[in-house]
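User: Okay, second chain of the day. Same drill as before: sequence in, structure tokens out.
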Amino acid sequence: MSNTPDATFDDSMLSGYLDGELTQSEHQRVRLRLEDDADARRLLEQMREIRQAARSTELPAPTAEEWREAPRTPGSRWLRRSGWLLICSWAVVLAALAVWGLVASPGPWWEKTLAAAIVGGPLLLFLSVLIDRLEVLKSDRYRRVEK
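Assistant: Same drill. Structure tokens below.
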């Protein structure tokens, strides 16, 4: 970058110079480098242009419809509902099979207790969340409010 190499100077110091984040001695060192080095001046100018372009870029805010999480087309709504129905049905069948296996199989009481805890714990947690969600849906005044 320079005609006279300086091991203590790197391009990140130009960024700090541009942002006003350097100490007084670092600031003076960069100013001296800029006076002597055309490559450093070019690089600093490029950094200024990039900074200005980034600051002047305006991104459009998404519309209210773009913020929605709900599926937008009838096909995707049907697929989502069908997927949830399939998952819930699978969970019920799996839990029923686990309970049937516990009751029908002979074995020590501690094995059945452990298996019941492994199957029953997540099932109870799922049911508690489901009950809470259904309760909130009944009383949520803002459920149908669109952003």
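The chain has two domains: 11-56, 64-139.

User: Thanks, on to the next one.
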